[in-house]
Amino acid sequence: MTSPTYASSHAQVAERSVAIAVPRTFRGLATASLTVLVGVLLLLPVGAAVQVVLSAQLDDRTPTQAIVVLDPARMWGDTRPVLAARLQHAADLYRDGVAPVIIVTGPRREAAVQRYELMVHGVPSRDIVSFATGSDTIGSLRVVAGVMRDLGWSAATVVTDPAHAARAQSTASALGIDAHLSPTESGPGTALTSEYVGRETLALLRHHLLSRWAIPEVIR
Asked: Which of 49, 91, 107, 171 makes the best surface tag, with the fewest CB within 10 Å?
């Protein structure tokens, strides 16, 4: 049996150890706080990169009310091959019965081309809906969310590039869309290059830290 004297001595030693470990001066507290802050800031990019890579692997074929094809950003050159790959993937999802309608986004001048491409892949014209939307992810999905709200819809399958999938899903969710990801599987835009992943990691960080808080919840 442990003696009371030994137990008391052991407790005093433990208390002194804790007292030594905890900073007792303002400088010590500031240093500890700064260390924690730096650690968190270093982990944020890692977490965002992991989210980008993991979301790129998803292929959710859960039935939804619409397949949404996001228009590629035009700041990175010719987007026609990338858009063609997205439209073909959306047509595959439609034929597999994932959703009865395909919603295409982007400038109004692209609507006829997108409709034609989908029809070539076997999608009836009556099941293709197009809306002129903004040139970025938030602008496009905000229009889609408004249309879905008016129709009483809530779930959509989002088609985009693999690296862009994480930011697309986070944006859609912020708008109130029950977003299911099915990124393109082959063709232009599907490669997880270091440049593309790095660019989307930075964009996702900006979204989580800044843009996310300004997005209104359209579908409640």
From this structure: 107
- The per-residue pLDDT for range 78-124, each reduced to its tens digit, is 788 999 999 999 999 999 999 999 999 988 888 889 999 999 999 99
Residue 123 CB: number of other CB atoms within 10 A? 20
3-class secondary structure for the chain? Answer: CCCHHHHHHHHHHHHHHHHHHCCCCHHHHHHHHHHHHHHHHHHHHHHHHHHHHHHHCCCCCCCCCEEEECCCCHHHCCCHHHHHHHHHHHHHHHHCCCCCCEEECCCHHHHHHHHHHHHHCCCCHHHEEECCCCCCHHHHHHHHHHHHHHHCCCEEEEECCCCCHHHHHHHHHHHCCEEEECCCCCCCCCCCCHHHHHHHHHHHHHHHHCHHHHCCCCCC
Write the class of the CATH domain 56-214. alpha beta
What tens digit of pLDDT does each residue of 130-155 get?
Answer: 888 876 899 999 999 999 999 999 99
Please state, in angstroms and rounded to a whole number, the distance separating the CA atoms of residues 111 and 87.
12
**pTM confidence score:** 0.79
Confidence of residue 47 (pLDDT cuts 50, 70, 90): confident
